[in-house]
Specification:
about 800 residues, alpha/beta, 28 helices, globular
């Protein structure tokens, strides 16, 4: 195939080549002539898989999302009889180029043929078992022609070569229903195939046991005619399949078949040779077709010309039966007749022999005849397929051909596999270019899937340099085409081979792509656990490569997997050490579920006992900045404590600078949201003189001097307003603190202090406002000073809002108290 010279009917283009521009001008005279445009190399296709919208993008990877309302396709419609016939002709293998071979009759198969038709007419499924080369395909074709009118949906021909039960169910659906770009999910597929009534003929079946029973149970209205070799697993005992065993031909039928191939009567010597061959080959028809090709070549030599003269005359290859025409040319030996592949190939053209080398390299898969000129390097190489077919070296396999049974092993023994790696790499390079070309439709690429996958497998298993990278390129080019062609079995095989090749070649980006595609495929097929594993692997690789767009696409698909699986919404990612912080937060929070508040600038004296708790986001204070929540691992506690201590010192310095000149007479009430600084040596107590706690005038004994702090300074009295995070001496003995935590005096009437108190500075980030609360008689109540205590444990709400809960630190902290003027 030449993608640059594509036809209008086959590829959907009106014209191409030199006359493409005039056709565009005739359709739209206003369009200027820009010359030949560079074709787009990307081919994005949107498919509907169940209720999912799949966008196959060969450049950036597939994307998947749930179908929006109105995007789901209509119910599929059945093909008409004419459409089914057209599809059957398109699915048949192509007619080889060159003169047609002789039409061979179906000998000694009439009884088996009638028996199979009777079983199918009664609606019973039959399994036809016979060795390779026994004529199964010819018998299946004859029975299919006899059953054309038995079922309402006619006869459906399928190929079971390397196909699973799911592949066969989807192929059956596509053969009966018309649903473009729609692939139903498992549930929808089973609902649709249950109503199909057809005679389904499957050749080269490779499944048995439970998978085969699954296929039969899913299609109760179909009658299956299954052709399989003896090495295929047997069906289950309760499958109710009729078993028909196909044997070889008799001696007389074998000789008759040989005469039909040669198209003349056999001599006595040739008849005796054919009898010996029948005993050796157990009457397999394929052996007599190949033996007839040997006799034709012998006749050509006797006639005075070589069979390869038409295409190539290679003097390096000696003739098989002598160099000169002779009536006494010997017959092939019995061994050559039983394994004639190498002898037959030696008398073919060079293009045919090169085609055989490519087929051996691809594991027996023969490239389509349209690819042979490019692969072989001969413009007439497409005729090589006809040579091979007339010699009996090929057998049909679905819409293509492959080497006949036993031919691959015979050719490998003759040296045709010595250059297999080089031929497989050449085929991979060709298919990489071809499958990614815009002119190649996904259906054409899917039809050539077996050859592409065979080339891919050969490169992955090879050990030569550069083979893994070539396999990555081929899988990267072919996998999107298989997906768009809805051959998802081939899509999965290409992805897995490409992933393995990318791992061997060390191409992490490509390996992440294949993991992503495998996750999308598993999501489409309903395998959620597999999809999650593949997508997580892809996201991890792309995150390491800083591929943001790829990682985002993977997370979207992973979110869809979680939604399908019914998983809870993913929480915020937990960093190492967060579990410890959360546990401590739950232990230190007050009853009711409200998290405990933290001081804005905690003063740390013992970092080993510091407690880190979770703090809810708080509103920013006037002129202050909001501090983030301190969270971290256990190993970071010391560093966090040191940072908190530094923040406390910096906050003190900022406070001194902000309040050094404040003499507001109205702000003389001390609230819980205000704290005195212990380092204020100008307006407060000296750092080296402990403060004495004078007794109140009402006779209430004072609490006495506080114990010195860690730095040697005196601590505050019991009546001093505690700063956030500090515990009062009264709290330890059960006596309520005298300072109101709300910034409002208690209901008791305290004794005024002897000296007026200077209003302390307001710590940044706190919202307390000094107020005077009138008593019942309207007289303002002075604010309690440092020497006053209260015996009323009741605390009232302040005018500015509810009281704020304060979390006490596990360590004993000390702060300075306000001093007198």
């Amino acid at each position: 195939m030449d993608p640059t010279n594509r036809g209008p009917e086959e590829y959907g283009h009106d014209r191409s080549g030199d006359d493409a521009t005039p056709r565009r001008q005739s359709r739209d005279p206003l369009t200027p002539d820009f010359g030949h445009q560079t074709p787009q190399q990307s081919r994005a296709v949107q498919l509907i898989s169940g209720d999912l919208l799949l966008t196959v993008n060969p450049v950036d990877g597939s994307e998947i999302e749930a179908c929006r309302p109105g995007q789901r396709p209509e119910a599929p419609e059945r093909h008409t009889a004419e459409q089914r016939a057209e599809r059957e002709r398109a699915a048949a293998p192509p007619v080889p180029a060159g003169p047609p071979g002789p039409q061979l009759p179906l000998l000694e198969r009439q009884e088996d043929r009638e028996r199979l038709v009777r079983h199918l007419g009664r609606g019973r499924s039959v399994r036809l078992t016979g060795p390779a080369g026994s004529g199964r395909t010819a018998l299946l074709d004859a029975v299919a022609a006899d059953c054309a009118d038995l079922a309402p949906d006619g006869v459906v021909r399928l190929s079971g070569w390397k196909r699973t039960s799911t592949d066969l169910l989807h192929a059956l659906f596509e053969a009966v229903y018309r649903a473009p770009l729609h692939r139903p999910d498992r549930e929808g597929l089973l609902a649709l195939v249950q109503g199909i009534g057809a005679v389904v003929v499957v050749d080269d079946l490779e499944i048995g046991g439970a998978p085969l029973q699954e296929l039969l149970d899913a299609t109760p209205e179909c009658a299956f005619l299954l052709g399989a070799s003896p090495d295929v697993p047997a069906p289950t005992p309760d499958s109710n399949l009729e078993e028909v065993v196909l044997d070889g031909l008799g001696r007389s039928a074998s000789i008759e078949l040989l005469q039909r191939v040669v198209e003349r009567e056999l001599t006595e010597v040739e008849a005796n040779w054919a009898g010996d061959l029948w005993f050796e080959s157990e009457g397999l028809p394929l052996r007599f077709v190949q033996a007839g090709a040997l006799l034709r070549q012998r006749d050509d030599l006797r006639a005075g010309h070589d069979a390869s003269d038409t295409y190539d005359d290679d003097p390096a290859d000696p003739p098989a039966f002598g160099t000169a025409p002779s009536a006494d040319a010997p017959l092939p030996s019995l061994g050559e007749g039983a394994a004639p592949a190498a002898l037959l190939a030696s008398r073919l053209s060079e293009a045919a022999r090169e085609t055989l080398r490519f087929a051996v390299a691809l594991g027996g898969e023969v490239p389509h005849q349209a690819h042979l000129p490019a692969l072989v390097g001969d413009t007439h190489a497409d005729a090589a397929l006809g040579e091979l077919h007339r010699c009996g070296l090929l057998s049909p396999a679905g819409p293509r051909y492959r080497l006949a049974a036993g031919v691959t092993a015979q050719l490998e023994a003759s040296g045709y596999g010595e250059t297999a790696d080089a031929h497989a790499r050449s085929a991979a390079q060709h298919y990489t270019w071809w499958s990614g070309h815009p002119s190649v439709t996904p259906e054409r690429a899917a039809a050539e899937a077996d050859a592409l996958l065979a080339s891919l497998s050969r490169l992955v298993l090879g050990d030569q340099a550069g083979q893994a990278s070539a396999a990555v390129l081929l899988a990267r080019s072919a996998a999107p085409a298989f997906a768009a062609g809805m051959q998802w079995g081939s899509w999965e095989k290409a992805l897995r081979s490409g992933q393995e090749a990318a791992r061997i070649a060390g191409e992490v980006a490509e390996e992440a792509y294949f993991h992503h595609e495998l996750g999308v495929l598993a999501l489409c097929t309903g395998h959620l656990d597999r999809a999650r594993a593949e997508l997580e692997a892809s996201i991890g690789m792309r995150g390491a490569l800083a591929d943001k767009s790829g990682a985002v696409a993977g997370r979207r698909a992973l979110a869809l997997v979680a939604d399908r699986a019914g998983d809870p919404l993913p929480a915020e990612r937990t960093l190492p050490g967060d579990e410890l912080a959360v546990a401590r937060d739950e232990r230190t929070s007050p009853p009711g579920g409200i998290p405990a508040a933290k001081p804005l600038f905690p003063r740390v004296t013992d970092t080993s006992a510091m407690l880190i708790t979770h703090q809810e986001p708080r509103r920013p204070a006037k002129g202050g900045a909001r501090l983030g929540v301190l969270r971290g691992a256990r190993r970071n506690l010391v560093a966090v404590g040191a940072g908190a201590l530094l923040a406390a010192v910096l906050g003190t310095v900022v406070t001194l600078g902000a309040t050094s000149g404040s003499e507001d007479p109205e702000g003389r009430n001390v609230t819980t949201e205000q704290s005195a600084d212990e380092d204020d040596g100008e307006n407060g107590l000296p750092a080296d003189e402990p403060a004495a706690d004078p007794a109140p005038e009402d006779g209430t004994p004072g609490d006495g001097p506080a114990s010195p702090g860690p730095s040697g300074t005196a601590g505050p009295s019991a009546s001093a307003t505690p700063s956030p995070g500090a515990s009062s001496p009264g709290a330890s003995s059960g006596t309520p603190s005298s300072g109101s935590p709300t910034g409002r005096p208690t209901h008791g009437t305290p004794t005024p202090t002897k000296k007026p108190t200077k209003p302390p500075a307001t710590t940044p980030g706190q919202t307390g406002t000094p107020t005077e609360t009138p008593t019942e008689t309207g007289t303002p109540t002075p604010t309690p000073s440092e020497s006053e205590t209260t015996t009323d444990p009741t605390m009232s709400d302040s005018a500015s809002g509810p009281a704020e809960t304060v979390t006490a630190s596990t360590t004993q902290e000390t702060t300075g108290s306000p001093t007198t003027a």
